[in-house]
Write the structure tokens for this entry.
Amino acid sequence: MLIHRLILRARARKWRKAPGAEVPSVCVGNVTVGGTGKTPHTELILSLLQESDRWGNSQLGVLSRGYKRRSRGFQQVLRESSAAFSGDEPLQIKKKFPAVTVAADKDRVEGCRFLVHPELLRIQDPKEGKAAGMSRKMVRSARGCKTKELIPSELIVLDDALQYNKLRASLNIMLVDWNRPVFSDRLLPFGKLRDLPSRLWDADIIIVTKCPHHMDNWEKVRMAEKLRIRGFEASSSTGTSPSGKPVTLLFSGIEYAPMEPVFPEADIRYSYSKSAVLFSGIANDTPLKAWLSDSYKIAHAFSFPDHHRYTRADISEIESAVRHFPTSALVTTEKDAQRVLDCPSIPDSIKQRLFYLPLKVFFSTPEELSLLKGVLDRL
């Protein structure tokens, strides 16, 4: 464990010295394994950027690793892409923000360069690539890219890139789960931490996510103490790290919007049922079950691994539950819906009653949202 900590510290030092992208960039990351709400917060940031006077008319880009995708190298995500090709999260973002360029690339440096200079994707010859400052790997990635026509991005949002130590964003936002303060957790495999909790101090903004709907200032101060932030003032959302570095601490919550059909064949009447069959492949489905149980009796619930790729056997098992509870709605998450759409031969009994629950983010006060807007405007 000591060796693991030393490796993480070395990676953090390398990250602090890493160069930035050629254009302003925003990183949304965390130090835990899944479940902090990166995707809905990325979507919120994109909404704020599109609404801002500074960036509203600019070409925005999103770069994601595309976790568990089957494609390799740099790939542009289109609305008609499959979750298997692009990853469920990038595909979800693209469908919500069609004007934004969304791409997947494990190599964030390469991905940012292609987003800023999409003309490089047309280079197929290694000699020509060398003249343009491209490595052989980058030329191979350009060859494998299925889409060549992109508009150069003027600002890039990096999804989950805090642990990528070759690139440092202009603005780094760290997400921490209200229910899992990082200094009370342990490194993998004994806990949920994939990085040192002290990486909090590398962030420009820390957002405590999944907070209760109604919070008092003393609750915020107590959470700041758990995160070892000194002198925190809830009125200004500021405090200092143990080394004296200024810290901006915000508090957000996640709520579910009304259900939406996954397939056009869906019968809206099922959404008014008093019971529901639930299935999901997310890191933590407890909040989802709690919210759904306020409006529905959960007749049956399937819990699959995070980012689970659904098979015919899974669909058959879900169909059996649907037959057993013929009046129940069938409910899943928005990310799961992207993966279900990849499955061939979905039976009509599922298409007619399958709905997903969109997520949206709210901040504890309007002032906190305004503070985030101001930081984005000043990029």
